Amino acid sequence: MAASPFRVTRDPIDAAALLRETVAPSDGAALLFWGVVRNEHGGRAVSHLEYEAYASMAEAKLREIAGEARERWGTGEIAVVHRVGRLEVGEASVAIVVASPHRAEAYEASRYVIEQLKRRVPVWKREGYVDGGAEWVPGFTPAVEEGVR
Amino acid sequence: MAASPFRVTRDPIDAAALLRETVAPSDGAALLFWGVVRNEHGGRAVSHLEYEAYASMAEAKLREIAGEARERWGTGEIAVVHRVGRLEVGEASVAIVVASPHRAEAYEASRYVIEQLKRRVPVWKREGYVDGGAEWVPGFTPAVEEGVR
Amino acid sequence: MPMTVRSLFFATYRDLAGADELLVELPATATVEDLVRELRAARSGLAALPPAPAVAVNLEYAPLSTRLSDGDEVAFIPPVAGG
Amino acid sequence: MPMTVRSLFFATYRDLAGADELLVELPATATVEDLVRELRAARSGLAALPPAPAVAVNLEYAPLSTRLSDGDEVAFIPPVAGG
Question: How many Cβ pairs closer than 8 A exist between chain A and B?
Answer without folding.
Answer: 81
